[in-house]
């Protein structure tokens, strides 16, 4: 087995163990006790977002040369971070499949499938790791998306904390999600001659799926938090 696949397997096991132990670490409030698995799931996702989003930012800060070559240049830590994320998305996929009805989770399952395929290619080929790390910048916004869900489940909607998080969530959504995906789509288009056809097809399909999904989610957030 390649070291990358071992990291993926170790990450899957670690996030699974974290998910099982989170109810003791962060006991659910009375309003969330009817949906305990969801409470654990969101906290697990928050842990991954902090790790991967923070790691991606640190990666580009410590290794600025990576931004000039997103295909072949990357430090070992960047490859490991992408592999860890593959393990997390696999764990979250299994968690949702086991605990949620398909009609409730199909969008996220579809999203996770696309991410696992794209990141999996980067891990196996040791290429496009920098491009995958750009994608992980999206997780900076996911931190505030998950905090929003936690506050909702804790019945803290009518609080200053929720309102502040909503504003930060919206700002980071535009900067780290919409702008990042637009930049990735532009990069793919400009470098289409240098990227193998199969890889280019996978990346293009991934961007074509992610972009409308994120625009729809942005509209839902605006409608829920600002247009009520």
Number of helices: 8
Global outline: globular
Q: Rg, please?
A: 18 Å
Helix and strand sequence:
HHHHHHHH
Number-wise, the strands total 0
Membrane topology: Multi-pass membrane protein
Keywords: Membrane, Transmembrane, Transmembrane helix
Organism: Leiothrix lutea
Domain TLC: 34-228
Structure in a nutshell:
It holds the Pfam family TRAM_LAG1_CLN8. With 228 residues, the chain is mainly α. Helices cover 80% and strands 0% of the residues.
Notes on the structure:
It is a multi-pass membrane protein. It comes from Leiothrix lutea. The chain crosses the membrane at residues 131-147, 167-188, 200-222. This protein is mostly helical. The chain has one domain (3-227). It has helices at residues 3-25, 36-62, 76-99, 102-125, 129-136, 138-153, 160-190, 197-225.
Q: What order do the helices and strands come in, and which of them pair?
A:
Layout: H1 3-25, H2 36-62, H3 76-99, H4 102-125, H5 129-136, H6 138-153, H7 160-190, H8 197-225
Task: Identify the notable features of this structure and list them briefly.
228 residues, mainly alpha, 8 helices, globular
